[in-house]
Structures are given as structure tokens and as C-alpha cells.
Amino acid sequence: MTPVETLWVYLAERPLLWLTVTLVAYWIADRIAARFGYAPLANPVVMATALVVLCLQATGTGFATYFEGAQFVHFLLGPATVALAVPFVENFHHVRRAIVPLLVALVAGSVTAVATALALGYALGLPRDILVTLAPKSVTTPIAMGIASQLGGIPSLAAVLVISTGVVGAIVLTPLMGLMKVRDERAQGLSAGVAAHGIGTARAFQLSPLAGTFAGLGMGLNGFLTALLVPLLVLLLGQ
Q: Which of 44, 75, 106 is the last residue of a domain?
């Protein structure tokens, strides 16, 4: 066998292979995004996901096998979320000065995200399990899956909807803010975090640390508020 084939056989027998594939895929995607100046359509998360999926399809590898090796990246989501406290502390004076409009915007954004999803689904005649799965689309995956599970929804579908929402939000954030002439980095970041959770927050940090701070804050508070809102709104709709 060639050296490349020998290396593949060696790695294929170890979980480390899929961790390596994940990191390399993101590195390639990030280099491509950087080449295009991190334009909205050149989203590294989307490109890295596509690369990993293509690799899994080409090798006939199932998700369980992939996750066994890549779960270390999943584990790092916890520390990465906690690390958002660092820019928050550094920019706390900005947060303190904008606390009232921040809370008003947070409530408005959370209610709008949940209510529009439920209202649209209800108008289309979607069944209850799909409605409660669709409602928490703008929060992080663990929270959305927990809400869907507790209310009789479909957790796996909730995860897909959350990721789709984050990707779309990260892509349209910059063009939409430009179209609406929103120049305030605090408003840009908060809207990204509330509407597009972690992927939107990552995009906000590409804009500026201040935007990322408000995005992380919006993401966290929106998760808490959504967990309270969804059961209430589902009850009001008679579902």
C-alpha cells in the first residue's frame, strides 16, 4: 500500500479519525471564508458541515461511528459557551448602559420568534407535535430538543430546524442590517444571538467583539425566555 493508504487504514480503526476530519474540514472552510473576507454566503460552519457529510457519504460511515470520534468537539461546546463570559466582562460597561433597551428588544425578539413560528404552523394546519418542534427554532440545540421532548415534539427534527435557522440567520445578518441601515454593533449582535443562537453569535464575533458580546448575551437569555414562553403560547393556541 502507498503511505496515504497505510495512514488511512491506521486512522480508520481509531475514533481519532473523525475528530481529525472535523477539525480539518473546519480549517479548510475557515480558510475559504477568509479568502472571501468572511462574506455572508461564505459561512465556514455551512462549508465544514458539507465537507464532513461528503466524507461520510463517500466512506459509507454512519453517524454513530462519526460521533464516537467527534464527540470531543461536542464536549467543547460547554466550555466554549462558558468562555463567552470573558468578552461579557470586558464589555460589561456597554451592557450596563444599554440594559433597558436590551431587555425590551430581548422580549420582543423572543416573543416574535416563537409566536410567528406557532402562528404560521397553526395557520397551515400542522399537527401539535410539529408545532412544538418548530416553536423553539431560535434557541440552542440542547434547549430546543429539551423543549420539544417535554411538550411531545420531535427532538431530532428540532435539532435540524435549529441548525437551519442558525445558518440562515448567519447568512442574512449582514445584508439585512445593511438594508435596514442598522449600524449599532450592539443591535446587530443582539439580533444575531436572539434569532440565530450559536451560529449567529459566531458570525457576530466576526463583525466585532462588542457585537459578539451582545450576541452571546442574547443567545443565553433567549434560551431561558423561550423555555418559559413556548408552553404558554402552545397552551393559548389550544394545542
A: 75
